[in-house]
Amino acid sequence: MSTFLLMTITGIGLGALYFLVASGLTLIYGLMGVLNFAHGAFLSIGAFVGLWFATSIMKEATIPNFILAMIVGGLAAGFFALLMEQLLITRLYDRHIDQVLVTVGVALVVGAVLGGWFGNDLRLFPTPLWFLTGINFFGAIIPADRIIYIATAVGLLIGNWALLRFTRIGLIIRAGVENRNMVNALGINVRRAFSTVFFLGGFAAGIGGVLVSVYSSGVSPLIAGTYLIYGFVVVVIGGMGSVTGSFVAAMLIGVIKQFANYYVTGLGDFVIALLLAGVLLVRPQGLFGKRIS
Amino acid sequence: MNALELADVSVRINQAQILHGVSFTAPKNQVTALLGRNGVGKSSTLKAIMSLYSPTGSIKLNGTELIGTPTHAIAASGVAYVPEDREIFATLSVKENLSLASRSKISSEKMSRVFEIFPDLSTRQEQRAGTLSGGQQQMLSLSRALLNDNQILLVDEPTKGLAPKLVTEVADALAEVAKRETMILVEQNLALVKRIAQKIVVMDQGKIIFEGAPEKLSDSVWVQSVLGVSNRGKHS
To answer: Which CATH number goes with the domain that contains B111?
Structure first.
């Protein structure tokens, strides 16, 4: 029983990290139809800026300092995403091939700049000691950092939900996901909503970057790649444009991967690839996605 | 006095020329009906006005050039658009659809004016718009346009695909709206057009072939051949 609980909760923790990457991806695609391959760069920028803040500004690895570093990393990634959207993406709406080329280019440039500056070796992220402890949960000793991942993902989901549900910009985003042209035809500049979504997507990825640094025991420009791939898998399984779908898919993937790896080491990625193939065959629009006629 | 003036408006999409130098005017406080067979460019004309296509020529709203202005700015300047397929936001509630469309905080006065015309919507404010009937969706689409102070209302085939009973309801509502709004109405239902329009513009193959008062459309043979509808048709 304790093993089952341990696997489930650590799986949910892993899923939380995937969700932090995927939530921005799914909104950006759902609203703007932009396949953003530079999303991993947002994660790296968040991680490195968070590392800089935690080591140069705060120095002491306490929980409040860590949370601050996470927010600063998120804001840095959010502003970078906004800058990229304003400088590049606004010129490429409805030009999908160009979007892919440009966003892949941005990802490569950011990866190279960070690699050149900091090197590709893992740099230890100052982690509060409490993160390294275990919490007894019905007999299962759960690593405390997983609780932080889960709490952050749930917080982000609630924040996202509240923004989409109770604010005018959220209303515009929801309507824009359905029909961009009609939102414009109502006298609303939907591009402003695009910029907000890019910022929020970058912010979530940046926060994810700091948490991934803890999970991966360090920061490196190379860690973003794996999480970006999983981010895309989550978006496809959850349904493009659905934040709730991404949350459910991320949790599902995290838990399944954890169990698969527990029983046969290294089998996790293969099982997720099978799951992806199965969803694409049976429900191509994803679990919560809308069918495209 | 004209609210809207189109001069030599052309639209080309990929290799196809959709509009060929369309010119006509829509007088203030009147309903101008755009008539013609399917595919002659009526809806494209409205989309060109809204800048949903990229037209050439000149489109002036109260003397201000609209060509080159983005869609949202055209709508914000007072051009309300009710599209052919309603295009309500299906996952949003009726109330959210209305709230989104209102460019300022919805006053209870405006809301009651809308519900006075469309009483069916007042009891369905929390209902998801996608679950409304075709007629109710059409009413919602029209309501969205009526929440703002408009310079002109562009209404594209409001009775298309509706059951006869709903056609009557929508026609009555349009007649009510026509009393206070300048409107360009694209409609196949000639009886409705004659009921509310003060001016008729007939299109054929992307060009204007007739512009004048509804009474001038008296030659039923000519009407039948160009419009593909009967002049004697009555909406029920």
So the answer is: 3.40.50.300
